[in-house]
Each structure stands twice: as C-alpha cells, then as structure tokens.
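dumping this here so i dont lose it
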C-alpha cells in the first residue's frame, strides 16, 4: 500500500471516530443517525474494518445506529459472562454485547 493511501486511511479513521463520538453525544436522533451513516460510508469507501466498539453501535439487523439507553433497551444478563442484551427499538432485534469474559470459564 502506498504511503498516500495509508495516510488517507488514517485520516478516514480519525474522521470515523469523530463522527461516532458526535453521534453518541448528539441529542437529535436523526442527526445522530446521519452522522453514524456517514461514518459507515467512509469506512466502506476506504475499506476500513470498524473496531468492535463501533460495530456494536449498529443494529445487526436493520443497521440502525443504536445508542444504548436511548434507542435501545439494555438488560444485564445474570450469567457468568458479563453481558448486556441490547434490543433495537426500531426492529426489535436483540443481541448480546459482551462486556467482560470471565477468564475462569
Ligand atoms: Zn434494528
């Protein structure tokens, strides 16, 4: 990969981080969704694999941007694996987000 492309990717990554940060802080749901979509678009365009923390902010089914506690219901499970169940309020899809793996398992 050329240096120029690497640089472009680096800038894109920073841009994505910023957009996601703004989206999380944004009180206006529509604006947040737009910023989140933009972040995803940049990632796709630059073929950047989004880190787990960012990926789990998008609903796996309807791809909506999920802000835990706002556009999603969060339930803490009572298993050995510390995980929360996140339900997308748009499509009602529930998935687990693992917080901490119990290393003793
Ligand atoms: Zn959804």
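and the seq i came up w/
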């Amino acid at each position: 990969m050329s240096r120029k492309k690497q640089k472009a990717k680096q800038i894109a990554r920073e841009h994505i981080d910023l957009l996601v940060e703004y989206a999380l802080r944004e009180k206006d749901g529509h604006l947040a969704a737009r910023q989140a979509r933009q972040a995803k678009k940049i990632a796709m365009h630059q073929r950047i694999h989004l880190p787990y923390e960012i990926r789990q902010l998008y609903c796996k089914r309807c791809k909506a941007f999920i802000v835990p506690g706002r556009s999603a219901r969060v339930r803490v499970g009572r298993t050995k694996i510390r995980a929360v169940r996140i339900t997308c309020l748009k499509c009602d899809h529930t998935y687990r987000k693992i917080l901490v793996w119990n290393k003793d398992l």
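Residues 56-105 form one domain.
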